[in-house]
Amino acid sequence: MSFPYERYRTLLDSFLLYYPRGYEQQAQHLLLKLNQAAEELGRLLKLPLPELEIILVAPADWEKVPHDEDLGKAQTRLPYFTNATEPPSLVVPTQLDPIIGEPAAEKLTFLLYHELAYAFLEQDPRPWPEDYPLWADEWQLQFAALWLSHRLDGQHDVVNRDLHELYAEIFLAEEDGKTPVTIRSFSWDEETSAEDYLCFDLLLERFALDLLKRAGPEVLPRFLREYRKEQRALLSDEVTAMLGAAIGPDGVAWLESLPYF
Prior knowledge:
Blueprint: E1 9-12, E2 16-19, H1 24-45, E3 53-57, E4 80-82, E5 89-93, H2 105-122, H3 134-153, H4 161-166, H5 194-215, H6 219-227, H7 236-247, H8 251-257
Parallel strand pairs: 2-3, 3-5
Antiparallel strand pairs: 1-2, 4-5
Helix pairs in contact: 1-2, 2-3, 3-5, 6-7, 7-8
């Protein structure tokens, strides 16, 4: 089932954006935020603007959105990046999935920033490691999104505060000093529920906040200089050492001291 582009209107700035009738104001705001974020990310990462189109999707058309075949249909109504189109697309629902908690404008922009960061890193010409742990990539996206939320939207804390309160137990350390699930211990497979992955994202968001306070935004490009190289599979401990070096003196010790890491 193909997406009904012909029924959508368009806006053009740094990106081409498709939007349904009646959503012009939301489309204009979305494009403004993406333009601002792309400028900031390009400057931080020293990367050009990615080739990307934006599709703001009406609820009735969500079942028709383009998606990567190996990932299947989007199970939740959240923004996502896909290579299923040419050029790639950032698909954005007009209404967020209830799993995200209380609907708020800052949550949508945070999610947009996350996927825009993905687009930048996906089109970075530097090679990827052959294999690596899940958290090695995911922290980068959450970190970039939170940094942009602080820089552009006046945020000073985590963005999903209501969800952090709702799932407060995931941050409680056990007898060994670590949380029941940590950023490094989490693994994903086809049986992983949306709620479990949400909890992983919340751990990453807390980590992004702590890391931003500790090392500032430049830790990301420093990490990428070592991570995005032609190299064999990276183990979790090796990525930890790499990130610790990017943080600076005592970086690894600081990481190991975090209960959720």
